[in-house]
Write a structure and sequence with these properties.
10% of the residues lie in helices and 43% in strands. The chain is mainly beta. The longest helix has 14 residues.
Length: 834
Amino acid sequence: MSNNALFAQKVKAATVIKGAIIDAETNEVVPFATVSFVGISVGTRSDDDGTFELASFDGTDKIKIVCIGYESQIVHVDKGKKQTVTIKLKSSTKAIDEVFVRPKKQRYKKRDNPSIDLINQVIAHRDKNRKENLDYYEYEKYEKLLFGLSNITEEFRQRRAFRKFQFIFNNLDTTKIQGKQVLPVYLKESLSDYYYRKTPKTTKDVLKANKMVGFEGYVDNQGLSDYLKYLYQDIDIYDNNIIVLTNPFLSPIASSATTFYKYFIVDTSYVGNTKCIKMFFSPYNKNDFLFQGYLYIMKDSSYAVKKVDMYVNKNINLNWVKSLRLKQEFNNIENHGWMLTHDEIDIDFGVSENSTGLYGQRAVSYSKYKINQARPDSVYAGSMKDEPMHEKPDTFWVAHRHVPLERTEEGIYATMDSVKKVPAFKHTMSLLMLLIAGYKDFGYFEVGPVNSFYSYNPIEGFRGRVGGRTTPKFSKKINFETYLAYGFKDEKAKYYLGSTYSFTQHSIYEFPVKSFRVCYQNDTKIPGQDLQFIQEDNVLLSIKRGVNDKLFYNKTIKFEYLNEFENHFSFTTSYQFNKQTPGGNLYFTDSSYSRYFNTVPYINVSELSLTLRYAPHEKFYQGKQFRIPLASEYPVLQLQYTLGSKLIGNDYNYHMFKAMISRRFYFNVLGYSDVIFEAGKQFGRVPYPLLMIHRANQTYSYQIMSYNLMNFLEFVSDQYVSLNVDHCFNGFFFNKIPLLKKLKFREVFACKILYGSVSNENNPKYHPELFKFPTEKNGTPITYTLEKEPYIEASAGISNIFKMFRVDLVKRLTYLDHQNVSSTGIRVRFKLDF
């Protein structure tokens, strides 16, 4: 008999029961009833509308239903089949001491409700129960992050893609999700010491050991680790907002929680040896970003949370998530308060309920607490890592894991190491990297990005490009990168050659970077176009609105030193020399001549610059082309100083200062706002190419950092301030509209304000030797200053269309009399979001 036939015989059919529980006399739903298989410890509870789902491969032919205020009942079911049942419970007259019961559905009232009285006491004592009230504390943290394919069926297992990987199915796990098989494919473990000091407030997480399944050469392992940690952030039930999958959820014990949650005292229950009041909570609106579940509250004057077990409603506007459950447990440490000792979050990702998906589990154990024991200042300062922290032997992990690995987890490291050696895996990953990242890996050299191999603009015409760079297999210390491009209309070749040297033991793509780069580039640049996470000659940006016939031809040599620190402070120093020539319908003409008399063929721009950046607690993913930061509530600050001087080869003397601060703000159930504030000031007389040319966008893609209805080179300034606010309501309003809530759309709103000016010193009206501002062929101005009023544009849109797209209607509110401008426009942005 074949292995496949043996496997098919061993796979059990799951017993799946979906149903509703109602009152036998009134036919009203019965919430919070316990439903379990008789003979095994697998069970669930009905939610607040009386429905439940119970599943197990080991399910028996009987289920038992228990609910306070009702008689227990045993119901016969069909083993190994899917079925739907309706269960009617008879009420019981049995009195229960110390328990408030909600046996059947009725109108919820806050007044004279003991549940509200209790939760108000929990909220009132919230700050007293926070561990941050302690002067000092420390603990050892063991974290395990597991991912696996969920809902593995025999049909999925027999797909052609897995013919050479059948050995991986030896690790199938049937305990993670009831009634579904999970195939673990990724595991990361870490062990660290955490230190907290109240005054001055200091936290430090010292990583002692790390072990993970790696995919070197295909993905950024550290970036992947940071991204997963970003999705599975540390959760504090005592915070007002709890960030889960990048979205803010209101805590059930937040200061405003009773406005959005309903509470019901269900029972008194023991958690270990501790007697607690068990409370169920659920949202008034099941579509809002809120939890539902159970709180176990201490039956003493502390009103501390002993345990929480909560999940999200299936109707919530959360992408790609089939189920999400969070559990936390607290213990009293040295009689100083209730400290978190166990933290677990389980998420089943997928497109639909019955599809194969991705299961993720983060389990954290906290132990070896020390309370109010001061440490020397040196403990709270310095590196976040202990060296060496890598490659601990298996004996170390056996001795130091707080919880032993399960059998299926133990096999992940060896199994995935074997998978990476299979040629079919290498070919598949190479194809995925080509499609996703745009590079084809040939070992020591990779070719790409493929999306820039072809593009078009009115001046260069059809533009072809080919290039690539060396990989860490060639060298971790030194990198070479190059490309060659050609415009078939301007008949000019463009090219780039650069090299970067790393002063660390790792590559230039691994944080923290300490590197020196030198490069030479001969290429074009659209004035005012400043793209984020995408290259200017990307084929998708070839189609532009309006007039796009002005650019610079730049010949640039640049030397740059970058030094990043583990606290996410960095500085960059650079020297750049640029020979800048106007192209297309752009001229460097002084004000005393007509526009057709090109008095200056090019200018020399030689600059020294210093950039300081501080991004505390920043997480990011290092892609093939760009480092993509992950938004957080921590601000990012950046300061830049640029010196242009004739002493270093510049045609002009000037100083330029720029500052930027950005941050994400969370607003409970109302979503979040990304806010960016910028300011700049320039000193010294310069022509318009050296002024601050404001970011414009003439493509049809929505760009967060740019002004989406501003034309290239439309506005210049030598001093400016700007504010950019982009808010996502996360479906707060759409969720209350019956038709729209099924589509799970989300509302977005943005407003961008720019105010600036050009001083008389840099205005060609007062200094004829300066270049004239660009005009159309008929003499109509196309470049302006902002003296009259600020430039303002606003947009309202819908995001989460097909869970991937955002469409904005953008409205330009000022300077509508300018040449070739649009007052409104539709812009589209691609973004995968949860």
